[in-house]
Design goal:
This protein is an alpha/beta fold. It has helices at 14-26, 37-46, 63-72, 96-104, 117-133, 163-170, and strands spanning 2-4, 6-10, 30-34, 51-55, 86-91, 109-112, 139-141. It is built from six helices and seven strands; from the N terminus they run E-E-H-E-H-E-H-E-H-E-H-E-H. Strands 3-2-4-5-6 form a five-stranded parallel beta sheet, sandwiched between helices. A two-stranded antiparallel sheet has the order 1-7. Strand 2, helix 1 and strand 3 form a beta-alpha-beta unit. The longest helix has 17 residues, at 117-133. The protein is globular and about 40 Å long. The two termini are 30 Å apart.
């Protein structure tokens, strides 16, 4: 069995939302998308996440400001469930200054765009270890090969199906 993480993707680019969501879902994880930092804080007040992938530059509330709010417990309207949630900065700009800013507001990690599969998998392993170290129980699920054919129906010993039934059975 593998672990299924509950991930919040705070990202304003529809293309990045689609690509990263599909990647994470293909790896067996649940993904919720927030279009900006304010929505990310509101989502963190509605449910508990194992990981927040936080774009650094978003409208309304940027990644650092949203992270600072989450670490403070949210807003008067949106009290977050888990102030210590693993937050990973997600940015195209990988300058030391931006990395330092992300860590200074309480982000745990930094992932660059475009994301490489091995970097995403390494991040997810760090999140799983972080959650286990905190004593958080994680959802286990059976590993299913992506795009695998469904299992064949059990064979029966009844008489051969008639024409219409044969076409349906063959599908």
């Amino acid at each position: 069995a593998a672990v299924q993480l509950n991930i919040l993707l705070a990202e304003d680019s529809p293309t990045n939302q689609l690509v990263v969501s599909m990647l994470l879902q293909d790896l067996g994880h649940r993904v919720v998308v927030a279009d900006n930092g304010a929505m990310a804080v509101a989502c963190a007040a509605r449910e508990t996440f194992d990981l927040i992938l936080m774009d650094m530059r978003m409208p309304q509330l940027a990644g650092c400001e949203a992270t600072a709010l989450i670490r403070q417990g949210g807003t008067l309207q949106d009290t977050v469930f888990d102030r210590e949630v693993y937050i990973c900065a997600f940015a195209a700009n990988t300058s030391e200054r931006e990395r330092a800013a992300a860590l200074a507001v309480g982000m745990n990690d930094f992932l660059t765009k475009p994301v490489l599969m091995q970097d995403m998998q390494a991040l997810l392993q760090r999140v799983i270890a972080f959650q286990r170290d905190r004593g958080v129980s994680l959802v286990e699920h059976a590993v299913v090969a992506p795009h695998a054919a469904p299992p064949a129906p059990p064979s029966t010993t009844s008489a051969a199906p008639s024409g219409a039934q044969a076409r349906v059975a063959a599908v």
